[in-house]
């Protein structure tokens, strides 16, 4: 079977740890026995491999997230890249065509679609396997997984099943209700709509052909920007008459806000943090290289990163999105396929960046037309390629890169480089990629 993980999000609700490039699923918050931390995306992929080892994983995502996915997951997953954001129906149509046309997957194969970032037990993915089997057996053209509600939530849509059996036909759907309506729905056996569903590959290809006029990958990709922004629920699920639902009663959390994220944190603080004994129900996450001291507070969230600093009451933090949208600031940290970078100083005509390259990785061979650069190797060793000439570099070496020079750095060991960019117009668009010359 095939598992498609949807990786979207613009990074507003968990600011300042998240941004337009680093969405919540890439934040390393889960402690590991070896002292390292892993992200929601890494945790979910690990759970899939444990519970459904035969499954092939494909992640549907935007171009902005590809580098972070490669950095955290390597080449162990396939990636279907959306040229731009067009909501879930275009994304699922595109990834389905990718599986069929690019990967050669047959139309009878079953596909299960899940978000990349739920906080769940391994049993959740055992249910996903069951869901895919129901779709393969023809129980319904489209199989959904509904979550047994633990309270009358106003945040989720509701699935209204025909009965309270483990597998049931779907009668109707309800939009996000108020609390009193949610209570009535639950009394009738309603389930939260988890955004998890399964289908035979040919089903979505046929939907794409009927609704868009085409279903092949090349056409979908080239015309993607012209497609209507519409969710899979509106475009397909709510119009389909032959829909079934599988109940899931295990642990399931949508970690969409600081309030819900802190509920599953194993520690009250991460990073260089000191809290006094009077702090109650307070969580502090510090990604800066300076200490944070918190004293005598309750029900508070403090989060600090190169993007900014948040100090918020836990309940109020759920309503931060419109305020974050008013903040206009360049991205200060990002993961790349070769490692990561962090902007450490911005001045007129000058940008200073701390670059961290993983062992065995390399940047693209490229040049700039409006800036020169100076690279200072702080730790590690590797090689640089400058206008076709390769040389060894190690700690203490300084590499001057004039405007227009083609350049590339490759890390033999883990490397830290301080990169200083100098120019009147320093923008990320000033980059020309080249094929490698030696």
Give the mean pLDDT: 92
Structure classification: alpha+beta
CATH structural architecture of the largest domain: Alpha-Beta Complex
Strand content: 25-35%
CATH class bucket of the largest domain: Alpha Beta
Relative helix content: 10-25%
How far is it from the N-terminal to the C-terminal residue, by CA? Answer: 43 Å
**SS elements, strand count:** 30
**Spatial strand sequence of the major β-sheet:** 20-21-22-29-24-27
Which word captures the global form?
globular
Total domains: 3
CATH superfamily of the largest domain: Spore Coat Polysaccharide Biosynthesis Protein SpsA, Chain A
Output the radius of gyration.
24 Å
Helical segment count: 11
């Amino acid at each position: 079977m095939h598992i498609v993980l949807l990786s979207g999000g613009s990074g507003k609700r968990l600011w300042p740890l998240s941004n337009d490039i680093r969405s919540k699923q890439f934040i390393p918050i889960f402690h590991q026995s070896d002292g390292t931390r892993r992200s929601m995306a890494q945790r979910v992929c690990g759970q899939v491999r444990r519970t459904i080892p035969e499954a092939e994983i494909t992640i549907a995502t935007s171009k902005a997230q590809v580098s972070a996915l490669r950095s955290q997951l390597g080449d162990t997953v396939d990636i279907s890249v959306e040229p731009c954001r067009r909501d879930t129906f275009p994304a699922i149509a595109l990834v389905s065509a990718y599986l069929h046309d690019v990967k050669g997957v047959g139309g009878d194969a079953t596909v299960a679609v899940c978000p990349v970032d739920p906080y769940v037990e391994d049993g959740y993915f055992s249910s996903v396997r069951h869901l895919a089997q129901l779709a393969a057996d023809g129980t319904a053209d489209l199989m959904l997984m509904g979550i047994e509600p633990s309270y009358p939530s106003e945040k989720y849509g509701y699935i209204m099943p025909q009965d309270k059996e483990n597998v049931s036909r779907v009668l109707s759907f309800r939009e996000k209700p108020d609390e009193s309506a949610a209570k009535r729905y639950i009394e009738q056996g309603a389930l939260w709509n988890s955004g998890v569903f399964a289908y035979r590959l040919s089903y979505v290809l046929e939907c794409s052909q009927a609704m868009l006029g085409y279903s092949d990958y090349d056409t979908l990709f080239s015309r993607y920007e012209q497609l209507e922004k519409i969710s899979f629920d509106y475009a397909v699920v709510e119009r389909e008459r032959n829909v079934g639902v599988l109940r899931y009663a295990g642990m399931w959390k949508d970690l969409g806000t600081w309030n819900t994220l802190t509920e599953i944190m194993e520690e009250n603080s991460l990073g260089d943090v000191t809290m006094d004994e009077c702090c109650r129900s307070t969580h502090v996450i510090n990604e800066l290289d300076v200490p944070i001291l918190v004293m005598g507070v309750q029900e508070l969230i403090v989060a600090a990163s190169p993007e900014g600093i948040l100090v918020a009451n836990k309940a109020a933090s759920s309503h931060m999105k419109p305020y974050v949208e008013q903040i206009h600031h360049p991205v200060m940290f990002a993961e790349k396929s070769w490692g990561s970078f962090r902007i450490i100083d911005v001045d007129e005509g000058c940008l200073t960046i701390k670059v961290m390259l993983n062992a065995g990785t390399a940047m693209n061979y490229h040049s700039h037309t409006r800036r020169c650069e100076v690279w200072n190797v702080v730790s590690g060793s590797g090689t640089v390629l400058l206008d076709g000439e390769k040389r060894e570099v190690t700690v203490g070496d300084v590499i001057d890169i004039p405007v227009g020079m083609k350049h590339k750095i490759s890390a033999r060991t883990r490397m830290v480089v301080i990169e200083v960019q100098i120019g009147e117009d320093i923008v990320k668009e000033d980059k020309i990629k080249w094929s490698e010359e030696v």
